[in-house]
Design a protein that fits this description.
Blueprint lengths: L5 H34 L17 H16 L5 E3 L8 H15 L3 E5 L4 E6 L27 E4 L3 E6 L4 E4 L5
Antiparallel strand pairs: 1-3, 2-3, 4-5, 5-6
Length: about 170
């Protein structure tokens, strides 16, 4: 049998094409779900995400009134916190205080009553930054700050022996 015959070449070519088609089908089955998921426009970062909630006109007006208060308040001005935002009072006050201080270092925003933020002038020095209290290193390691001598009623004065890890009587001290 001649391997190079036309018939054998056609058979081998046909088998090769079938094998290629099977591999292409397997590849397509693997790639198709990935390509379909890529067709959906997913945001790459959280900043590209579309907002899930839409604000009503009243909420947008409240947000704008808050921003106006922060950007233009003078000492004595107050802003009433909406009832839906009362749970966020502290974060609203912190954010407003930070922005007002950028505008004028003497102004502060404080809570006034249950549902008001008030812009006030602050006379006085800034409080010092928080510093942790000094910690004692006395008992950090047992060997470094060990008491060298100790009184024992039976033996008298004893010294610390690091090999025995105990106090032993010392005749020189007695």
């Amino acid at each position: 049998m001649d391997i190079c015959s036309l018939r054998n070449i056609k058979k081998l070519t046909k088998k090769w094409e079938q094998w290629e088609q099977e591999k292409i089908n397997q590849w397509n089955q693997f790639i198709k779900p990935i390509e379909e998921s890529n067709k959906e426009e997913k945001p790459r970062t959280k900043w590209e995400q579309k907002p899930r909630t839409t604000h009503t006109i009243e909420e947008e007006e409240l947000i704008q009134s808050y921003l106006d208060f922060v950007n233009q308040c003078l000492p004595g001005d107050e802003w009433q916190i909406p009832t839906g935002w009362l749970t966020e009072t502290d974060s609203l006050r912190d954010a407003a205080d930070l922005e007002v201080r950028k505008r004028n270092s003497k102004f502060r925003v404080w809570r006034s009553g249950e549902n008001h933020l008030a812009c006030k002038i602050f006379f006085g020095r800034e409080p010092p930054p928080y510093r942790r209290p000094f910690s004692s290193k006395r008992f950090r390691k047992s060997s470094t700050n060990r008491i060298e001598t100790m009184w024992n009623p039976e033996h008298g004065w004893c010294r610390w022996d690091s090999t025995k890890q105990d106090y032993i009587p010392d005749p020189e001290l007695n």
